[in-house]
Amino acid sequence: MCEFGSAVAEGFIEGNAKDYEISQNDPFSSDFKYSRFDAVFAGTRNVSALTGDKFVHSTPMTAKGIAEAINDAVEMEEQHMPKSV
Q1: Radius of gyration of the chain (CA)
Q2: Mean pLDDT of the 35-45 span
Q3: CA angle at residue 49 from 43 to 55, to 5 degrees?
Q4: Alpha-carbon distance 19 to 2, whole Å?
Q5: Half-sphere exposure of residue 67: CA atoms within 13 angstroms, side-chain side
Q6: CA distance readout (Å), 51 to 39, 57, 59, 78, 80
Q7: Could you tell me the maximum CA-CA distance found in the chain, to the nearest angstrom?
Q8: Could you tell me the pTM of the whole model?
Q9: Domain boundaries along the sequence of the chain
């Protein structure tokens, strides 16, 4: 079994990585907690169950709005970068 850090797919999956593990006895199984492989119907995704940082995004309609959105993204990325010595 592979071991991953706690942030794997953070914000993109419901539950946690353990919920997506499949049996080692049947490595080609599609049976896990959130599997929709054999589903005839799949309900809507429960976005409230997603973890990680959440942001409200608006659709920029002007060049100024686009520039501000890009600037916000760059600033967010810079905040997560390690500081150089």
Answers
A1: 19
A2: 83
A3: 110
A4: 14
A5: 3
A6: 25, 17, 23, 21, 17
A7: 56
A8: 0.42
A9: 17-80
